[in-house]
Design a protein that fits this description.
By secondary structure, the protein is mainly α. The protein is about 65% helix and about 5% strand. It folds into two domains: about 80 residues, Homeodomain-like (Arc Repressor Mutant, subunit A, Orthogonal Bundle); about 140 residues, Tetracycline Repressor, domain 2 (Orthogonal Bundle). This is TetR/AcrR family transcriptional regulator.
């Protein structure tokens, strides 16, 4: 996540005020209009920037060290704010975690949509590209697999935790989008096929993380194409 840039006043400020995964519109330079589930909320621009800074700091710390090992004091320090200001924005660490996950879900969804929109051709070509991208992703510095999966493992003894609910929804939405892409490519039984291929991709991510070997992505691609061939036969 990146910090939102300062916005100019007037029309340009209104046009450019899309940040953080929320639908927003600027009123001059003083307030942001946020469209929420409960209606329209006016927030001072400085408060909005502070909130985003908190989300950025919490995301980095949770990603690097895990949820349980990070304190609210550390998040406040990383965001360069007081602990009181932090609690003015988020009543608890659980609430902050939920906000971080929702923001990350929105970013991942947008990235996957961009990836999906660029795909074309046969289901086999789509599978090749999916696992090729997985290998590229796994080669990034400090890569540590799926943050959503790691969090669910960390909270394994808390099945009803809100963060686990968000993580389940995140995985389900991405799987459904992949199924839709396969359907448009003419695959048979796209929902069932998407689930099987998604299982291979999640397994490949875990094994790449364990062994540090990106060849598991290629092996998963081979297995996925065998599934495709079996359904086409």
């Amino acid at each position: 996540m990146s910090l939102p840039a300062r916005q100019p006043s007037g029309v340009d400020g209104w046009r450019n005020c899309q940040a953080g995964g929320f639908k927003q519109a600027a009123i001059g330079c003083s307030f942001t209009v946020r469209y929420t589930f409960v209606g329209i909320v006016l927030m001072p621009r400085s408060a909005e920037a502070t909130r985003q800074r908190i989300l950025d700091a919490a995301y980095v710390l949770f990603r690097r060290r895990g949820y349980s090992r990070v304190s609210m004091d550390e998040i406040a320090s990383a965001a360069a704010i007081t602990k009181r200001t932090l609690y003015n924005h988020f009543e608890s660490k659980d609430q902050l975690l939920a906000a971080v996950l929702k923001a990350q879900h929105a970013l991942a969804l947008a990235a996957f949509k961009t990836f999906g929109d660029a795909l074309s051709g046969s289901p086999e070509a789509i599978v090749d590209e999916l696992f090729r991208e997985l290998a590229v992703w796994a080669d990034r510095p400090r890569w540590a697999g799926s943050g959503f999966t790691r969090l669910v493992i960390e909270l394994a003894d808390l099945p009803g935790h809100p963060a686990r609910v968000i993580a389940r929804r995140h995985k389900a939405v991405l799987e459904a989008q992949f199924a839709d892409r396969l359907r448009k490519a003419g695959a048979r039984q796209p929902r069932e096929l998407a689930r099987e291929i998604w299982l291979l991709s999640e397994g490949a991510i875990s094994l790449i993380l364990v062994h540090g070997d990106r060849k598991y992505a290629a092996a998963a691609a081979v297995a996925a194409k065998r599934l495709l061939a079996a359904r086409s036969g």
